[in-house]
Design goal:
By secondary structure, the protein is mainly alpha-helical. It folds into 2 domains: about 120 residues, Tetratricopeptide repeat domain (Serine Threonine Protein Phosphatase 5, Tetratricopeptide repeat); about 210 residues, Alpha Horseshoe (Serine Threonine Protein Phosphatase 5, Tetratricopeptide repeat), CATH 1.25.40. The chain is built from 23 helices and 2 strands. It starts with a strand and ends with a helix.
Amino acid sequence: MRQDRFGLSVTTAATEALDAYVAGIDMLLSANAGAEGLLTRAVELDPSFGLAWIALARAAQLAGRFDEAKAAAARARDCAPSLSEREQRHIEAIALAVNGEAARAQETILTQLRDHPRDALPLSLLLGVYGILSFSGRPDHHEAQRALLEMLAPHWNGDWWFLGYLGWSHAETGNPQSGAALLERALSANPRNAHGAHSRVHAHVELGESEAGAAFLRAWLPAYDRRSQLHPHLNWHLALFELELGAPERAFERYGAAIRPAAASSAPMPTLADAASFLWRCNVYGVGPRPLPWAEVAALAERAFPKTGLTFADLHAAMAAAATDAAALERRIAELQRRSEDGTLPQGEVVPRLCRGLGSYGRGDYDEAATQLDRAMPDLTRIAGSHAQREVFEDTLIAACMQSGRHARARSLLSARLERRPSARDQAWLAQTS
């Protein structure tokens, strides 16, 4: 039987279809444009190629085309009865995730990994800032990802994709130096792995290396196809480095060219998160044009996420509403509060509390903003995302404390961050609290 790049048997009668599938999976796992074309070629050559169909489903899901993803998953399930047990469970795990059954998908993936620890595509669904573990609501999702990866590491033999996520997990669990070393190995093996590049940026963030991070991205990004999944987000990271380095005009040019909804190539949720959090930071930092260009971000939030349900989207929709539409924000908060009380919000009370804090900050009630945001901090990791993404809420709390005269609390927060990594902004803020 034929095998994929990870040494796993693959059922297909067409050698060319397998070649297209293997290349497409690498493009998908490295977040490079072109994966869908290769996978489509694979199913054209072999319409019964179940693994290629489920990979197409995952690609469509990542692009935010959910109806298309579900249709491709259904095709994969139709092919499954004639496949091996490993392939059947591979298909089922991803199909469950595509159809919104995250808990069952996680259980199936973990079972699969016990038997087939190198089954990369199902494993990938658990990982990263928007993976199943991150969105589970558990406060230790970073530690859970690292523990899983370290358990699997003996089976992976330094694979570039695996090292990229292992390095990221080190950076997010307080070991950015060891994470950076792992990521250098990953990028040496595949310099165009965008997930590896993204993880390397996170190590720069956690080490406080804004100049080095910006230099890395300025060298890496020009060859990255702007149609690729992480193009807006990597530009977002570079824009944040530019804000930290005192170049807000350059950051705003980057926002307009690659991050704002009209320019971004990513799915609605990451587009909303990047655009809203960038503008909110500009508001908190007091930089950028006035008024800030919130209208298209608020329109995306209302169009793509009119109801609550995806917490990370809800929080960033709340930023846009706090800046543009207080009534819309209150409606979202009320719905989130109901879901928190009836147990259908995995992240719990931290979500409506953060939204209230954002609303208070937006209307200039800094004392109430500080109260709400401070109460949310112990559960902040539950909202998903990375340290870099969640820092916007810490920044808002610090700014609210400074605006409301809670200087001791601001100093405490800033000192803790500065012990972890250097920051010119935090040093400047700390000087203002004395």
